[in-house]
Design goal:
Helix content is 72%, strand content 0%. By secondary structure, the chain is an all-alpha fold.
């Protein structure tokens, strides 16, 4: 692994770890601060997640800031990263996500690993994941293909905050985050048996998003073409 790829992998690991820590940690805090108020708990969880995304993308974007294997997959499909590099980055994202969940559990005085018992297995939730991931890909790569990368942090943070509410699945939209969230039996957790279909639907959503991005924005930016 060359130094540039190592730096990118480190940025993806760190960024995804902080993202998952924000998702899981704010979920735990929300249930403790606002018990028996699910709407308020979701509001707190979504706002913290969106804010964390903005900060993390702004900070790490000069190195690498996908924090999401399906975003990295689409980058590879569009020729923005090599496939071998994409595989390394995806592994770093998954490892970072799991570490973030463990740290969040420990910060709130829970067992480092507690497998979630929160079942999320239904057709409407799977559709929600397709929609959530499709929208995320459109937001990210719409900005990239039109040369507005400086807007990505704010666009992604705003979109994920909104998608927590308008999708039935509360917008996981990220295989690394989905895998990590099964290691925390808390507000944001997902039962292991529910994970595979969530990831499959995220890949479907990403594929549809990639097709639409190519159709809507057929012209490469100077960065993509180089």
């Amino acid at each position: 692994m060359n130094l540039d790829l190592a730096r990118k992998a480190a940025a993806e690991l760190i960024g995804t770890a902080f993202l998952v820590a924000a998702v899981v940690g704010s979920g735990i805090a929300a249930t403790r601060l606002s018990p028996n108020a699910v709407g308020l708990e979701l509001l707190e969880n979504s706002l913290i997640t969106g804010a964390a995304l903005v900060a993390l993308i702004l900070t790490l974007q000069p190195v690498s800031a996908a924090f999401n294997p399906v975003v990295t997959l689409v980058e590879a499909v569009l020729g923005l990263v090599r496939w071998a590099d994409a595989a390394v980055l995806a592994v770093a994202q998954i490892v970072g996500g799991v570490l973030g969940a463990i740290v969040a559990n420990l910060m709130f005085h829970l067992d480092a690993i507690s497998m979630s018992t929160h079942t999320r297995s239904a057709g409407n939730l799977w559709l929600g994941e397709v929609v959530a991931t499709f929208g995320l890909i459109l937001v990210v790569f719409g900005a990239i293909r039109t040369g507005r990368t400086q807007t990505i942090a704010f666009a992604v943070g705003a979109y994920i905050t909104a998608a927590y509410w308008f999708t039935s699945s509360t917008s996981f939209a990220n295989p690394a985050v989905t895998i990590a969230r099964m290691f925390s039996d808390t507000f944001s957790g997902i039962e292991p048996s529910s994970v595979l279909m969530f990831i499959a639907m995220q890949v479907v959503g990403a594929g549809l998003g990639c097709v639409v991005v190519r159709f809507l924005y057929p012209h490469l930016t100077e960065t993509e073409a180089s």
